[in-house]
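Sample entry (193 residues):
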Amino acid sequence: MTGSPPGSPASRGVGPTGRRSLMHATLICLGIAALAWLPRQQHSIWFVHLRTEAGVAAPGTAQLPPEVLRSFVTVTPTASHRHELVKAMRAWRRGLWTLVLTNATGVALAREQAEGLRHNEHWLHVADIQHFSVTNKSGDFRAALAPLLAREHFGDACFKWMIYGDDDVAFFWPGLLRMLASLRSNDPYFLSA
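Predicted structure, serialized as tokens:
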């Protein structure tokens, strides 16, 4: 993507309304993160999931123009015990094609695939490999393969930018578009925070 699409948040700059939306979205994410430490973690996830399912977008998740959305795909590795977290993060991914890599199989995977189709999600099984990494997290293999599998799944012609993030990471469009505005999508970049 060279420059910003006309009318996109990055081309307009972020004015008072954009800053306010970003602040609200940040506060929501901080609230969710704080609630995650409480025993009732599922309720914070349920709250965000309920709001997005009801058609009420969280602040800062304004619908982007289709030409901007077509420039992006997103990929996230997860595990079966974290599927509700992936669903709770749908607000920022609304309208994007998303590949979710999980260790779920059988009926559980089929259920997530069927539900995910309504949200442009493709759920794919990638098995755990025990003792794969120095962290001893069996899902690290999924995380390592995520960008490669997304490229294989979507194909090069389908997108200009791939957004890769863990299942508990949300990206904020004004900042993301502003960061990418001066970069050429056909140059190889790996941007990390």
